[in-house]
Amino acid sequence: MPEGTLSEKTLGWVGAGRMGQALATRLLEAGCDVTVYNRTRSKAEPLADQGATIVDTPAELSDRDIVFTTLAGPTDFKQVLIGPDGLLSGDGKRPSVIVDSTTISADASAVVRAEADKCGTALLAAPVSGNPKVVKAGRLTMVTSGPREAHQLVLPYLELMAGGGVTYVGEGDRARLVKVCHNLMLGIISQTLAEILVLGEKGGISRAAMMEFLNNSVLGSTFTRYKTPAYVNLDFAPTFTPPLLLKDFDLGYEAARELEVPMPVAAAAQQVVQALIGHGYTDVDFAALIELQAKASGLELQSESAPVSDGLERAA
Prior knowledge:
Elements: E1 10-14, H1 18-29, E2 33-37, H2 41-48, E3 53-55, E4 66-69, H3 74-82, E5 97-100, H4 106-119, E6 122-125, E7 128-129, H5 132-136, E8 141-144, H6 148-161, E9 165-168, H7 174-202, H8 207-216, H9 222-226, H10 228-233, H11 242-259, H12 264-278, H13 289-296
Parallel strand pairs: 1-2, 1-4, 2-3, 4-5, 5-6, 8-9
Antiparallel strand pairs: 7-8
């Protein structure tokens, strides 16, 4: 779809948290017609300054062609879509497609999907990999599942938000399983980094040097480069908190039980994340795993105050 036609569809947006604002901003900057609902209206006001229209109920988005939702969990997801004053309530016009990026179970999604089908609305699951800084750098990735026709219809908007690429994985809620698997790996890698960095530091190797070597090796990745400042300089400003990570571990185990797949490594990592929360690390970034590992190893961590890169500057 040429850039000039991005404004042909009217868009709705539900959820103006940190990630929601970053994603909606990319649509607004491209000239899209966006109307926004957020339970706390004041959090949506910055989007109004960029040209969005703000409404007071999800039902007021029912006349939009496409509605995007990015919410905290299944309770909010159901309330916004099928609750009183929900997007699918009433008897009027409904969106052609709802694109949902909330991390929830397939069972929770199926309830809403059934109601959407009755209304003639396609539900596309569209979880993302990244955070607001990754969005701004144009490196966000997205995975989708649901009706292929709906995927094709909204793809230009998805590609606008997800500069790193959009992967379609089939019908139903398969994309949600992909995101859960992704976040299980996120937790495992994060704990592995904590362990090797503490081991190296106790042997006299700075965390900055260890991460430089790792990032330049075949084991380096966008993720290890991105988390380097957090691990080296102990910057735990939250991008994704331990409770949210634990929630995704729970979803992963639910899927593993259903599909009869043993997950021994993920189970060990989950227990460490649980311990992290038990030690009071709740409103911080999950990279705080390194502090827990250091305490267990008799090591007192200090920020190295090193000028390390997160790997996003070049992309931005």
